[in-house]
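YM 10:42: 16S rRNA (Guanine(966)-N(2))-methyltransferase RsmD sequence, as discussed on the call
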Amino acid sequence: MRIIAGNYRGKKLFSPESDKVRPTADRAREALFNILHSSLEKDWSAYKLLDVFAGTGAFALEALSRGAAAVALIDKDTRSLEKNVALFPKEKERISVYRQNVLSLPPSAGRYDLLFMDAPYNQGLSEPALRELAAKGWLKPGALCLVEVEKNEQLHIPACYEWQEERIYGLAKVIFLKYVSGPQQ
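YM 10:58: structure's back
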Protein backbone atom coordinates (compact mmCIF):
# COMPACT_ATOMS: atom_id res chain seq x y z
CA MET A 1 0.00 0.00 0.00
CA ARG A 2 1.39 3.39 -0.98
CA ILE A 3 0.55 7.04 -1.58
CA ILE A 4 -0.39 7.38 -5.25
CA ALA A 5 0.09 11.08 -6.04
CA GLY A 6 1.04 14.46 -4.64
CA ASN A 7 3.87 15.59 -2.39
CA TYR A 8 4.33 12.14 -0.84
CA ARG A 9 3.88 10.07 -4.01
CA GLY A 10 5.33 6.58 -3.61
CA LYS A 11 5.54 6.68 0.20
CA LYS A 12 4.84 3.20 1.54
CA LEU A 13 2.17 2.86 4.22
CA PHE A 14 1.84 0.29 6.97
CA SER A 15 -0.87 -2.30 6.38
CA PRO A 16 -1.42 -4.87 9.14
CA GLU A 17 -1.71 -8.55 8.32
CA SER A 18 -5.15 -8.86 9.85
CA ASP A 19 -8.61 -9.68 8.58
CA LYS A 20 -9.97 -6.87 10.78
CA VAL A 21 -8.47 -4.15 8.55
CA ARG A 22 -9.41 -4.07 4.86
CA PRO A 23 -7.81 -1.04 3.20
CA THR A 24 -9.29 0.24 -0.04
CA ALA A 25 -7.13 -1.15 -2.85
CA ASP A 26 -4.60 1.26 -4.40
CA ARG A 27 -6.29 1.00 -7.83
CA ALA A 28 -9.74 1.75 -6.40
CA ARG A 29 -8.35 4.63 -4.32
CA GLU A 30 -6.65 6.05 -7.43
CA ALA A 31 -9.89 5.82 -9.43
CA LEU A 32 -11.83 7.55 -6.64
CA PHE A 33 -9.30 10.36 -6.44
CA ASN A 34 -9.49 10.81 -10.22
CA ILE A 35 -13.27 11.19 -9.90
CA LEU A 36 -12.86 13.63 -7.00
CA HIS A 37 -10.25 15.64 -8.91
CA SER A 38 -12.61 16.12 -11.85
CA SER A 39 -15.62 16.97 -9.67
CA LEU A 40 -14.09 19.38 -7.14
CA GLU A 41 -14.68 23.03 -7.93
CA LYS A 42 -11.51 24.28 -6.23
CA ASP A 43 -7.94 23.22 -5.56
CA TRP A 44 -7.46 20.52 -2.89
CA SER A 45 -6.17 23.18 -0.49
CA ALA A 46 -9.74 24.48 -0.11
CA TYR A 47 -11.05 21.19 1.30
CA LYS A 48 -11.06 19.42 4.66
CA LEU A 49 -11.55 15.65 4.54
CA LEU A 50 -13.03 13.36 7.18
CA ASP A 51 -12.07 9.65 7.03
CA VAL A 52 -14.46 7.54 9.13
CA PHE A 53 -13.72 3.92 10.06
CA ALA A 54 -10.28 5.07 8.92
CA GLY A 55 -8.41 1.78 9.42
CA THR A 56 -4.92 2.51 8.05
CA GLY A 57 -5.78 6.12 7.19
CA ALA A 58 -4.66 5.62 3.57
CA PHE A 59 -7.55 7.61 2.06
CA ALA A 60 -7.04 10.67 4.29
CA LEU A 61 -3.26 10.55 3.88
CA GLU A 62 -3.69 10.41 0.10
CA ALA A 63 -5.84 13.57 0.32
CA LEU A 64 -3.18 15.18 2.51
CA SER A 65 -0.48 14.32 -0.05
CA ARG A 66 -2.59 15.96 -2.76
CA GLY A 67 -2.83 19.16 -0.73
CA ALA A 68 -6.00 18.95 1.38
CA ALA A 69 -6.21 21.79 3.91
CA ALA A 70 -6.73 19.31 6.76
CA VAL A 71 -7.72 15.71 7.37
CA ALA A 72 -9.40 14.05 10.33
CA LEU A 73 -9.40 10.31 10.91
CA ILE A 74 -11.86 8.51 13.18
CA ASP A 75 -11.60 4.88 14.26
CA LYS A 76 -12.11 3.07 17.54
CA ASP A 77 -8.76 1.27 17.02
CA THR A 78 -6.14 3.81 15.92
CA ARG A 79 -3.02 1.61 16.11
CA SER A 80 -2.63 1.13 12.34
CA LEU A 81 -3.48 4.68 11.37
CA GLU A 82 -1.19 6.17 14.03
CA LYS A 83 1.74 4.20 12.53
CA ASN A 84 0.97 5.76 9.15
CA VAL A 85 0.36 9.26 10.50
CA ALA A 86 3.80 9.07 12.15
CA LEU A 87 5.29 8.81 8.64
CA PHE A 88 4.18 12.43 8.04
CA PRO A 89 5.88 14.39 10.86
CA LYS A 90 5.85 17.68 8.90
CA GLU A 91 2.06 17.52 8.59
CA LYS A 92 1.07 17.26 12.28
CA GLU A 93 -0.92 20.52 12.19
CA ARG A 94 -3.05 19.29 9.28
CA ILE A 95 -3.90 15.87 10.76
CA SER A 96 -6.36 15.10 13.57
CA VAL A 97 -6.83 11.56 14.88
CA TYR A 98 -9.86 10.62 16.99
CA ARG A 99 -10.00 7.32 18.82
CA GLN A 100 -13.76 7.15 18.95
CA ASN A 101 -16.72 4.93 18.24
CA VAL A 102 -18.24 6.45 15.11
CA LEU A 103 -21.75 5.69 16.39
CA SER A 104 -21.32 7.86 19.50
CA LEU A 105 -19.43 10.94 18.39
CA PRO A 106 -19.11 14.19 20.32
CA PRO A 107 -20.31 17.38 18.63
CA SER A 108 -17.81 18.50 16.00
CA ALA A 109 -15.63 21.55 16.51
CA GLY A 110 -15.28 21.91 12.73
CA ARG A 111 -17.13 20.84 9.63
CA TYR A 112 -15.77 18.86 6.72
CA ASP A 113 -16.24 19.28 2.96
CA LEU A 114 -15.47 15.67 2.03
CA LEU A 115 -16.24 12.38 3.74
CA PHE A 116 -14.81 8.94 3.08
CA MET A 117 -16.46 6.11 5.00
CA ASP A 118 -15.36 2.48 4.81
CA ALA A 119 -17.19 0.63 7.58
CA PRO A 120 -16.75 -3.11 8.10
CA TYR A 121 -18.78 -4.84 5.39
CA ASN A 122 -22.29 -6.21 6.01
CA GLN A 123 -22.58 -5.06 9.62
CA GLY A 124 -25.14 -2.30 9.07
CA LEU A 125 -22.85 0.46 10.38
CA SER A 126 -22.85 2.92 7.48
CA GLU A 127 -26.43 4.21 7.83
CA PRO A 128 -26.25 4.92 11.59
CA ALA A 129 -22.81 6.47 11.12
CA LEU A 130 -24.17 8.82 8.43
CA ARG A 131 -26.99 9.80 10.82
CA GLU A 132 -24.52 10.39 13.66
CA LEU A 133 -22.27 12.60 11.51
CA ALA A 134 -25.29 14.71 10.55
CA ALA A 135 -26.67 14.89 14.10
CA LYS A 136 -23.34 15.98 15.58
CA GLY A 137 -22.51 18.59 12.91
CA TRP A 138 -19.41 17.00 11.36
CA LEU A 139 -20.29 17.86 7.73
CA LYS A 140 -20.75 21.13 5.87
CA PRO A 141 -23.95 21.44 3.83
CA GLY A 142 -23.11 20.28 0.31
CA ALA A 143 -20.32 17.96 1.51
CA LEU A 144 -19.44 15.20 -0.93
CA CYS A 145 -19.58 11.80 0.79
CA LEU A 146 -18.07 8.56 -0.51
CA VAL A 147 -19.39 5.49 1.29
CA GLU A 148 -17.71 2.15 0.57
CA VAL A 149 -19.78 -0.99 1.16
CA GLU A 150 -19.60 -4.59 -0.06
CA LYS A 151 -20.89 -4.64 -3.64
CA ASN A 152 -24.09 -6.55 -2.76
CA GLU A 153 -24.77 -4.62 0.45
CA GLN A 154 -27.81 -2.34 0.48
CA LEU A 155 -27.38 1.08 2.05
CA HIS A 156 -30.47 2.89 3.29
CA ILE A 157 -29.62 6.54 2.75
CA PRO A 158 -30.81 8.96 5.46
CA ALA A 159 -33.04 11.80 4.20
CA CYS A 160 -30.37 14.44 4.82
CA TYR A 161 -28.21 12.93 2.04
CA GLU A 162 -28.83 12.79 -1.71
CA TRP A 163 -27.66 9.86 -3.83
CA GLN A 164 -25.37 11.01 -6.67
CA GLU A 165 -23.91 7.84 -8.24
CA GLU A 166 -22.17 4.59 -7.42
CA ARG A 167 -19.19 2.65 -8.76
CA ILE A 168 -18.10 -0.97 -8.38
CA TYR A 169 -14.44 -1.85 -7.75
CA GLY A 170 -13.98 -5.61 -7.37
CA LEU A 171 -15.85 -6.61 -4.19
CA ALA A 172 -16.48 -2.99 -3.20
CA LYS A 173 -19.23 -0.56 -4.13
CA VAL A 174 -18.63 3.15 -3.53
CA ILE A 175 -21.77 5.24 -3.20
CA PHE A 176 -21.42 8.98 -3.79
CA LEU A 177 -23.77 11.10 -1.68
CA LYS A 178 -24.26 14.81 -1.13
CA TYR A 179 -24.99 16.00 2.41
CA VAL A 180 -28.01 18.26 2.05
CA SER A 181 -28.89 19.57 5.50
CA GLY A 182 -29.26 18.95 9.23
CA PRO A 183 -29.95 15.68 11.00
CA GLN A 184 -32.86 13.49 10.07
CA GLN A 185 -33.68 10.78 12.59
